[in-house]
């Protein structure tokens, strides 16, 4: 009975190598990527190419939250996506309609209150002005002290 022992390479490979790599070390983002670029003044087929270590994707902007969420939509079934879309659009539509309704309602209330209460305010102001004029007239006719103390008891009230 022969038992085959695995090679040294198979024994050392535990499948845990991926744990040592950084989350950002994707094949596109590895900083140690080496690119062959020709030096200035040489042709691309020159025998002595210049090796430069460049990050090819540094000039690209990172994904936004919206782009990431849009990419995650593929993992959900169509009924969940359509339900979410329906709820979102109906909620947005409801908020817009409530805003428009509140604007219209505030306009009606404000304009109605101006139309209904303006005459009352004008009449109250007119009555106060008349009282003030009567008081001033009484002060001129009877003197300054009589307007402060009120009508004298022995005098009859003035006709209107």
TrEMBL record:
Residues 1-11 have a biased composition (Acidic residues). One of its GO terms (biological process) is intracellular protein transport. The keyword Transmembrane helix applies. Its main location: mitochondrion. It is a single-pass membrane protein. It comes from the Eukaryota. It is found in: Mitochondrion outer membrane. Residues 1-42 are annotated as: Disordered. Keywords: Membrane, Mitochondrion, Mitochondrion outer membrane, Protein transport, Receptor, Translocation, Transmembrane, Transmembrane helix, Transport. InterPro entries: Tom22. GO terms for cellular component: mitochondrial outer membrane. Residues 22-33 have a biased composition (Basic and acidic residues). Pfam families: Tom22 (PF04281). Residues 12-21 have a biased composition (Polar residues). Belongs to the Tom22 family. This is Mitochondrial import receptor subunit TOM22 homolog. It comes from Pieris macdunnoughi.
């Amino acid at each position: 009975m022969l038992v085959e022992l695995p090679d040294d390479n198979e024994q050392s490979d535990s499948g845990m190598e991926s744990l040592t790599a950084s989350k950002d070390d994707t094949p596109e983002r590895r900083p140690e990527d080496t690119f062959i670029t020709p030096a200035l003044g040489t042709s691309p087929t020159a025998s002595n190419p210049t090796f430069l270590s460049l990050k090819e994707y540094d000039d690209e902007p990172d994904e936004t939250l919206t782009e990431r969420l849009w990419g995650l939509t593929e993992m959900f079934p169509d009924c969940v996506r359509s339900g979410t879309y329906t709820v979102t659009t109906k909620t947005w539509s409801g908020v817009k309609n409530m805003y428009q309704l509140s604007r219209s309602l505030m306009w009606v209330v404000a304009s109605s209150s101006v139309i209904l209460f303006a005459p009352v305010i004008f009449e109250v102001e007119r009555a106060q002005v008349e009282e003030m004029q009567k008081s001033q007239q009484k002060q001129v006719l009877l003197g300054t002290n009589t307007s402060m103390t009120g009508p004298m008891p022995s005098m009859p009230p003035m006709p209107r």
